Amino acid sequence: MNINQDSVLAALRTVKYPGYSRDIVSFGLVKDIQVDGTDVGVMIELTAPNPQLGEQIADAVRLGLRNAFPNLTNAHVQLRIPQAAPGAPQPAAGAAAGGATRQRDPRIRRVVAVASGKGGVGKSTCSVNLACALHALGARVGLMDADIYGPSIPLMMGMHDRPSVTEDENKLIPPLAHGVKLISMGFLIDPDQAVIWRGPMIQKTIQQFVGQVEWGDLDYLLVDLPPGTGDAQLSLCQTVALDGGVVVTTPQEASLGVVRKGMTMFEKVNVPLLGIVENMSYFTAPDGSRVEIFGHGGGRTEATRKGIPFLGEIPIYTEIREGGDRGIPVVVGAPDSAPAKAFMAVAEAIRKQLG
Ligand code: ADP
């Protein structure tokens, strides 16, 4: 086969990003290709300080090129790896490059993603209540609902206004709900339209979404990720510069090992795990007895196994579901209630984690 820029690029599209089904070209790691006869030079740029991953990718690139071009004489891979910031957490062994070093608005102090291994565990419920809890603790908070499959946060926050735009019409101004600045995919896509999102489409939309919001000064920006741990979630973690990830699980999900996928996803993109929240932990019956519907303690066990903090447990309360349906999160509607206190404790734990 002829060796030229196009055929080399095509060959690089067969090189998978370690641990993922997507290739290194679609992840934007290939920055330059030089062809000189049967010699090829490729420049790969990582977004996180992870030399081990760099070597792994370089080996895969060399192998991919040799497989594609039997007449290849030299495959030179130049790696560009960013320096770790002093005091920054070191990447976990075997971790992949990710978004932890992405540029972002310096007015946003901390960006935290909330993830879950699958849907229906209460991830969005936790996101809205934690955002309101951090606000109640005196912080300036933004909440980005990036759940492209079913953005439910505007309903849970009782927000029906669309964002306005800045004077130059370049940026969206997030509306304020219960003191929290809110932006949602639900504001931008028609909820009745089934959307089939493909990797590059997600990345492009999210980049616009992230870059074109006028958040102003924020202490915390919470990002509600779509449920699951596939390529869509990975794209998001790579696009948004995250300071930490929180994984929400139910005891049942934890016992099935689903929560591990969430933890692995953050590891792969070098985002520090702030800890696990166990939702729907137990139910207090009217006679005061404790009913552990989905079992209990799986979240704590996983956190211990992994050596990361257990951020707390949120029991099942009718008020939590009602608050979500009414658009007034329980932390706002009944701040002195037991469920609100449970969310406040988790918010305190997250704040402590972030220093
Ligand atoms: P996810 O974002 O993980 O798909 P949601 O936050 O939408 O899940 O929650 C699914 C449903 O469960 C919602 O109706 C929500 O009100 C309810 N729910 C979540 N957590 C609790 C809880 N601790 N107690 C009672 N209902 C809950």
Structure explained in plain terms:
There is one protein chain. The chain has 355 residues and is an alpha/beta fold. Helix content is 35%, strand content 23%. The strands form three sheets. Strands 4, 5, 8, 9, 10, 11, 12, 13 and 14 form a nine-stranded mixed sheet that branches. Strand 6 and strand 7 form a beta hairpin. The longest helix has 18 residues. The site of adenosine-5'-diphosphate has 18 residues, from helix 3, strand 12, strand 14 and helix 11. The site of adenosine-5'-diphosphate (ADP) has 18 residues, from helix 3, strand 12, strand 14 and helix 11.
Distinctive features:
355 residues, alpha/beta, 9-stranded mixed sheet, 3-stranded mixed sheet, 13 helices, 14 strands, 35% helix, 23% strand, globular, binds adenosine-5'-diphosphate
Task: Characterize this entry briefly.
The protein is an alpha/beta fold and about 350 residues long. The chain has helices spanning about 5-10, 50-70, 125-135, 155, 185-190, 200-210, 230-240, 250-255, 260-270, 300-305, 320-325, 330-335, 340-355; strands at about 30-35, 40-45, 75-80, 110-115, 140-145, 165, 170-175, 175, 180-185, 220-225, 245-250, 275-285, 290, 310-315.
Task: Please specify the SSE layout and strand pairing.
Blueprint: H1 5-12, E1 30-36, E2 39-45, H2 51-68, E3 74-80, E4 108-116, H3 123-136, E5 141-145, H4 153-156, E6 164-165, E7 172-173, E8 176-177, E9 180-184, H5 185-188, H6 199-211, E10 218-224, H7 231-239, E11 244-249, H8 251-255, H9 258-268, E12 273-284, E13 290-291, H10 298-306, E14 310-316, H11 318-326, H12 330-333, H13 338-354
The structure holds adenosine-5'-diphosphate (ADP).
